[in-house]
Amino acid sequence: MVERPGLTDEVNVTGFGVRKEEFMLSGRSCLLLSAEAPEVILVEPVDENDLAFLDRETRCLAENSARPFALVTFIVRDWNNELAPWKAAPVFGKEPFGEGASGTLDFIEDELLPYLAQANPFLGGLPVIVGGYSLAALFALWAGYVSERFAAVAAASPLVWYPGWMDFARNNRPLAGRIYLSLGDAEEKTRNKVMATVGARVREQAGLLSGQGIDCTLEWNPGNHFKDADLRTAKAFLWAIGSLPSSV
User: Fold this and answer.
1) Residue pLDDT, tens place only, 7-33
2) What is the pLDDT, as a whole number, of residue 7?
3) I need a surface site. Which of 79, 83, 112, 129 has the fewest CB within 10 A?
4) 5 exposed, middle or buried (CB, 10 Å; 0-12, 13-18, 19+)?
5) In terms of pTM, does the model score above 0.85?
6) Where are the domains of the chain?
7) What are the E-state strand segments in the chain?
């Protein structure tokens, strides 16, 4: 059952010309950051720690985007379950991965995007880019394979070392025609044998996409997995926005 969202009392304009609106939808805390006349919707799953860096990400987008945008984020509380496409054993720590990605995708397609179009008519019919960082980037990449809803994918440092992922990628073709990939140049330099494969796998992922005729780029950033996640995510969205045809 879809709850009727309640807007907070605070609806304001940030210091960089973006309107900020908070609302609840089906028990999820959501945030809409929108320019005056957006031409594209950016969808990003985040956790509570990411909220502290959203202003910097949004500023980077506002200062560099080729098109006005509406960025909508929603809080993911059970990260290892809600963003994982299938179950997997722990790779680091003790928490296993679940298989909640399909439910999260349903929320985006069946609840979040329809609500945005209903509550903000100027958002109806706009191209949608799904993106994120780390496991949220893997979710976005997976969503680009299984859903026709997204014009592009912005996957910053996706966990392509995820068990079973490369078999999935080798045997499927994305439905999204434009995909951005990135990785930190120190991410593969780790003692964890599974995570150390990330460099080879992201290179293979990019090669698979290019071979399938997908408009794809792979960008390398300085640092490890935890450096400048917000700015790397902004760069991912900026490429995806710029990849859209002018007629879209």
Assistant:
1) 443 446 676 788 999 999 999 999 999
2) 43
3) 79
4) middle
5) yes
6) 7-243
7) 7-13, 19-25, 28-34, 40-46, 69-75, 128-133, 152-156, 178-184, 215-221
